[in-house]
Amino acid sequence: MIHAVLIFNTSGIPRLTKFYTPLHQAQQTIVQKIFSLISSRPAGLCNFLDAPELEAFLGPQDDADERWRVVYRSYATLYFVFVVDGAESELGILDLIQVFVESLDRTFENVCELDLVFHFDEVHHILAEIIQGGLVLETNVEEIDSSVQAAAKARRESFTSANPLSLGVGGGAASRNGGLQTPLGWLTGKITGVGAR
Amino acid sequence: MWERTLQDLIRGLRANKSDESKFIAQAVDEIRREIRSKDMELKAAAVLKLTYLDMMGYDMGWASFNVVEVMSSARFHLKSVGYLAAVQSFNQDTDVLMLTTNLLKKDLSSTPSDIAVTLNGISHIVTPDLGRDLSPELIAMLNHSRAHIRKRSILALYKVIVKYPEASQNGMGRLREKLEDQDSGVVAATVNVLCELARKNPRDYLPLAPQLFHLLTTSSNNWMLIKIIKLFGALSPFEPRLVKKLQPPITDLISTTPAISLLYECVHTCIIGGMLQGASGYALARTCISKLAAFIQDADQNLKYIALLAMVKIVPSHPHLVAEYQETILASVDDQDISIRMRALDLVSAMANRDNLQSIVQQVLSHLVRAGTSSSILPTAAQSLAQHTVPASPTSVKPTIVPTQSPAYRLVLSQRILDICSQSTYDNIVDFEWYLSVLVDLAYVANVNIGSKIRDQLVDLVGRVKAARRYAVKLMVKVLSDDTFSGDGGDESSCAEVLWAAAWICGEYCSELTEPQKLLTYLLQPRIANLAQDIIAVYIHAATKVFGFWATELAQRWDDDLLPEIRNVVDMVIERVSDFNSSPHIEVQERRTLYSCSHSSGKIFLRTDLNLKTDSASKMLLHHHSTQSQNHGFLKACILFGHCSLHTNLILWHLLHKRACLYRTGWI
């Protein structure tokens, strides 16, 4: 299964941390450790992080099934890191990271780091359409995208029914009717495409 | 009240990078107020902000009850926020979890969107109790009309089974049915779950083999095929007939599939699934290894890495097939990518045999040497490498730059050398003198905390290999006379423990020494006070043995002209040993006392020989008695004196024999 999905930027700031297996040590330390090891790797090396400093974290050497593997890919200013065990195919996970990035791209249109920063919950919802509880749910980008859109639509409908005054007004209204802006008003603004970025 | 949205929080964080913690403290205060609000929108917004801060490392456990409140909202967009917060922050011990049972049940019978979010949440937060309470609903949900929900239920059921194994009794039947589901995604999810379960209890899933086999031969979904292959890899070791059945389709896949990921998994499964035995297995083994070798030589580093991973597993059964590619593999040990080096090291360790051991060890040792430490010992190490290497290996070591030389990596390298050579009680070593010199070189260049292991191996080897003792002693004398180790006794990575071995070996096999008295000067030089206490103790003990041996030797060819020399040595010894009078360590004290007893008596006799007055000699003797008797060690020393200082007794005996003194009876 997949034990963790991490996204952090080239300075080590985490943009998404999802742990499917609780860690016994502080999550921040392991993120920093992985970051320091990955950032020192020049481009062109393999996408598997297997350094002696991670031995304790990765688990027993002898049992190949139990031993974890850190698979990563870098896209622009971001590192996408998946921590998996022997039940997952190494090359398959590389493909899965690509699927994840493509799904983000579908939703955010030319996704960049700032999108992940300001819509971190959206990123979680997208990831939840790909992986549930550490197991792969769907690998086809089309399927994932339609599920993401369906869930987003349900959230949007729920919001508008709770806040009828914001109906059809979108982000433009947020600036005109400042007093009506609800704490989750930004949600509407993004989805109707106004003031999306 | 100024209500801040998540976006405001994020913008604020970005604007206040300089005093971030202050800003966050303010934000958390606001959140604490907002989260208690009756307005669910406000509450949810606060929880969302808190979830964001949780990612940055700020604990949100104190808000777990509020999270449950938001989860229970009827509005889907708020419910999502609650479940997200739960998934990110709840753990098995979160006490509010027991409040969620009814909420989860209710959500599981709600709209499909609610169900989806709930199932996702359950996969994260399920506890044994929740598992027990929810498993009936979950199992029923396996037959939901929507494929998306069926998929999620299957995956959620897996997590429930993990926490509450009894669920598998009822759930397994339904799960098996899902292998025949109309929707291919549902089938894939089922295979995924079965793969995970089978890794823990392979035998229970053998009955599924026919269905899985059918899927293997009919599906074109690469993801699912990979999982099925992996599943069979877990099952086939337990069913030989399965191996026979699988060999044809897997061989077929290996030769035809364009997907490298699937090809690799087939090869990997052949290796770990025990499919390479027997005559038919042999052909398959050749195919697998040739594919892996192609990967290792591929420009794509990822292929190289996974090929090395798989090759390690095939070495125990088909070492000669792997040995054909020895050169390529050895070259990988020099790769600039540490991940590849680590796995290549694994592989060469597994491949080590009598013929290639020396070239492998030479290569790994050269990594340590090349590290560019500022030690002046480097030329010596390189020289001994050159001297003792069997020049049979055609492997040319490329002068590639080795960028990282972290202590962890150096430790791995050093440990690896020790492990490869000591495998099967040193079975692979042909030339022990070579290996002894390797151990000493390792002590010089390692610069990591491996001294005690080197010490243990040195002592072990010298005990086992009689023929190597003379050479070992020669080496050890060189080590003892060298200043490198004795200087920094406090430094953990200096491998000073090897001095313990050196002293002990010289003492134990002192008959092989060529210049014992010279060694004594090294063993007792003032610098040794910097060493660890147990090393000093063994030094003194060894010095006793060496002195005894030397003196006996001299006594056998006694000549009065030798007296000045022996007197100088004894003077030196007594003087140095008395420096340790104040040592707090009991071992050192014991040795010192023993030494000074035996040597003072020797000294007294010598002085007597030189016509000192008898009464002053006996006074000296009595004085010595009384000072020693205050010391607990004195009694022990006497016993030890009688037991292990055979040599010293012999000296006395010879001296007395020549001079017919009567002090002996009173002394002992």
From TrEMBL, chain A:
Domain AP complex mu/sigma subunit residue range list: 1-152
Any one of the GO BP annotations: Golgi to vacuole transport
InterPro entries with a match to the protein in the record: AP_complex_ssu, AP_mu_sigma_su, APS3, Clathrin_sm-chain_CS, Longin-like_dom_sf
Annotated SUPFAM superfamilies: SNARE-like (SSF64356)
Keywords: Cytoplasmic vesicle, Golgi apparatus, Membrane, Protein transport, Transport
Pfam families from the UniProt entry: Clat_adaptor_s
Top-level taxonomy: Eukaryota, Fungi, Dikarya, Basidiomycota, Agaricomycotina
One GO location term (cellular component): Golgi apparatus
Protein name: AP complex subunit sigma
Broad class of where this protein is predominantly found: membrane
Membrane topology: Peripheral membrane protein
UniProtKB/TrEMBL annotation, chain B:
PANTHER family in the cross-refs: AP-3 COMPLEX SUBUNIT DELTA-1, DELTA ADAPTIN-RELATED
Gene Ontology process terms (BP): Golgi to vacuole transport; protein targeting to vacuole
Keyword Aminoacyl-tRNA synthetase: no
Organism name: Piloderma croceum (strain F 1598)
Main location: membrane
Keyword terms: Membrane, Protein transport, Repeat, Transport
Domain Clathrin/coatomer adaptor adaptin-like N-terminal: residue ranges: 21-596
GO cellular component, one term: AP-3 adaptor complex
Family: Belongs to the adaptor complexes large subunit family.
Name under which the protein is recorded: Clathrin/coatomer adaptor adaptin-like N-terminal domain-containing protein
